[in-house]
Amino acid sequence: MPAPAYDVLLILHIASAFIGFGSIAIGGWAASAGRRSGDPAGEERVVRFFREGTDWPGRVIFAVPVLGLVMLLVGDHPDIGQAWPWIGLGLWVVAAGVASGLGWPAERRAQAELAAVQAGGSGRLPAFTEACTQMERAAALITVCFVVVVTLMIWQP
Questions:
Q1: Helix/strand/coil (H, E, C) string of 99-128?
Q2: What values do phi and psi take at 76, rounded to 5?
Q3: Predicted confidence (pLDDT) per residue in 41-58, tens digit
């Protein structure tokens, strides 16, 4: 494959990783702020983050392995036979599984609980805090996976 086309794939791969995983990390930061807040319905940054809707930038993580595999298949280097891309893919599977199974469901619960708190249901605050705690923990684990994978992709042992 011509170098410019490969470079475009590389840029898209890196950009999708930083957009997707960055969005998840920001979600963890927002969850931390929501968890620590005594009145999350009164904090604009918490209300703005937890408005109803899907975290589409976070879903960009699903483009990361697709672009990475295309790069392995069309690149000049025989990296496909080495361990580091497959270890990276395995860690991506862990991160995507945690996001899909824990992080995003917790985010949806936090959105619903915050909407209930805003509607006058202050008794729902513990459920909001619990959802934020789960979301924060999921984001921390996902971020650790991301840092390890980035290190692996740069080092390429």
A1: HHHHHHHHHHHHHHHHHHHHCCCHHHHHHH
A2: -80, -20
A3: 888 889 999 999 998 999
